[in-house]
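A favour, since you know our structure tokens better than I do. Could you add the entry underneath, on a fresh line?
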Amino acid sequence: MEAFVSFGLCTLLIAFISWYKTKSTNLRTVKGLLLAGKNNGYLIVASSLILTNLSANQFIGENESVYLNNLSVMAWGITSVVAMLLVSEYFLPIYFKGGMITTPDFLAKRYDEDTKRLVSIIFLLSYTVNLLPPVLYGGAVALTGMFHLPSLWGISYWQSIWLLVWLLGLIGSAYTILGGLRAITISDTLLGIGLLLLAIVLPFYGLRYLGKGDLALGLTLLLSKHTSHLNAIGTAQDAVPFSTIFTGMLLVNLYYWGIEQYIVQQTFAAKNLKEAQKGMALAALSKLFMPLLINLPGLIAVHLYAGVENTASIFPQVAADTLPNTLLGITTALVFGAAITTYNAGLHGSSTLFVMNLYLPYLEKKHKTPTETQLVRTAKRFELLLSMIAMITAPFILFVDSGFYTYLQRVAGLFSMPIFTIIVVGFINQKVPPIAAKIGLLFFMVAYFICEYILVLTIHYLHILAILFLLTVFIMIAISFCYPSKNTKAISINLSHSLVVPWKNRHIVNVVLLILMVLIYIIFSPFVLAS
């Protein structure tokens, strides 16, 4: 009962503060609903980036991977620091100078409107298939395991997943539709503080439980037994081989932090480029400490449980067994909130893409001038439609054969990397024509689908992504020699100069972050802890 009470109180408190802080925001305008009034400072930007990135998927999927393999899965978070710094230095200035609301806006300026619409549709397909349903499923798995709901309610595990998926979906939809992006960013900040405290509390109780009440003994056991699981240098047999960090993983992380609409939209809501860059740096720093929060329960589970059949339940099982009831309720509320915020951001990013890149151009083509109220109403209806689709499809992820996190990343490559490739080529080469972008998209998607789902290849899917990236770049540049683009003008600046002044201290901070990243890898390697 204590766990349920603390869960309810924590959730209601965050919701109330978010409502109170956003009641003055005008949600009847596109800017107010979709960009939080474009008035966020770096603390809110950093919190929004981390909480939008952090969902129950990572708690569930990464701990499952740690239990089955080792700490090599932490590469997704740790090495994302490199991508985040590159995005901050090269991507964000282009976005802010161009005054962009969605990342496909760049494609319209660089290629043409048809390319922008095509990429917007691919984004929406990606969110419908590989973002919204997995977020609901991961949240449902976490809540089911933490509260042991099947036995408590007297229902099957499958029925529990269905009920919780719909509960999360309905709450998330209401929160997004009624509160807008400003409410999401405020709740992200509050949840960020809570998760920071959880990063301290969960290791404490988990290690003490492992040591049967003795914290020092628990830590000693963790560092002296099953040390192969402490290794972050993945082999070819692991889910994340170390070599993939330098190929496909870098590209995927660059796409995620620099192009993924529901992530980049958090930086678009910053007051100016300086605040956006400071927020990105602070978010990168927090990623270096994420293994304490995300991966440690999986390490503890290696020592506590043997032969777990449903490995997706590792994280909720550790939390339920080690935390006091009150803290279990608060932890569940934080995981619940993390799932909701990622879901909300996905819905919000989707409606922004649909309204600004598809619906509005359609009306303008018909020579119709929509009102702000009409656009906002359409955005909310589209969010509701996507939410219904996600709630219907999410429970069926239970039947996926491969690991949950690996499944997510493999499917994501089908949508993300083709978009990333044509945007990067657009950044570096002004002569590539629009037809090359369309051919590049089609080639990459078809080739990746064949390599992953038709052919039986022994090459890791991240290496395949890197190879296809290079091939697509070559094809696009080859086309540019035959049919060079006539639109070679640079993107014009349509914002006031003060909004695009970069952060002066960013280079010093970037060097420190990179040094810390390398040190973490040295510590979790056969040279130190994994010997």
